[in-house]
Amino acid sequence: MAVRTFAVRLHPGADLKSELQQFANQHQLKAGWIVTCVGSLSKYCLRFANQKTASVGEGHFEIVSLVGTLSNSGCHLHISISNQAGATIGGHLLEGCIIFTTAELVIGSDDQFIFEREIDKVTGWKELRIVSGQNNDK
User: Fold this and answer.
1) Which distant-in-sequence residues (6+ apart) come within 8 Å of 4 by Cβ?
2) 138 in any annotated domain
3) pTM across the whole model
4) CATH no. for residue 85?
5) In terms of DSSP bridges, do strands 74-82 and 88-93 run parallel, antiparallel, or are they unpaired?
6) Which single residue of 55, 59, 93, 138 has CA 20 to 30 Å from 49?
């Protein structure tokens, strides 16, 4: 199968990460990525660099960037958001980022690869393992 492109709109009250994982599962994405995303959040839940616990906040935040990989075996996404003064924060997207007005996304996928997640002995985190999807009917 060739590269596929999806256009998605998430609605107010939806959980950004949960919806993206459900989308990947529903469409059986083996190797997906975020092409672009714009929208807003009323609540964020992020893990900042080298932290074990989440940081949360409520208010009105613009999504200024969302990047990362997704597949039916897991996703790894980073988000940047800005507040009403334009101050920007970013980090690892966790469940609990709630859509305020919209999230408009374009997602790409290519079955030439399979993105799997497995614990890395060095980092201790579930890291990306890239497998060739050619000649594979997963």
Assistant:
1) 108, 109, 110
2) no
3) 0.91
4) 3.30.1330.80
5) antiparallel
6) 59
Read off φ and ψ for residue 24, nearest 5 degrees. Answer: -60, -40
Write the burial class of residue 45 (CB in 10 Å: 0-12 exposed, 13-18 middle, 19+ buried): buried
3-state helix vs strand vs coil in the chain, percent to 5: 10, 60, 35
**Residue 100 within any structural domain of the chain:** yes
Q: What is the pLDDT of residues 30-58, one digit of tens each?
A: 999 999 999 999 999 999 998 989 999 99
Helical spans, DSSP H, in the chain: 16-26
pLDDT of residue 138: 40
Report if residue 137 sits inside a domain. Answer: no
Q: How many domains does the chain have?
A: 1
90 in a domain, yes or no? Answer: yes
Report how far apart, in Å, the C-alpha atoms of 70 and of each of 8, 85, 99, 120 are: 14, 31, 19, 18
Beta strands in 72-119 (DSSP E): 74-82, 88-93, 98-109, 113-119
CB 103 within 8 A of CB 37: yes
Dist CA 112 CA 18 (whole Å):
25
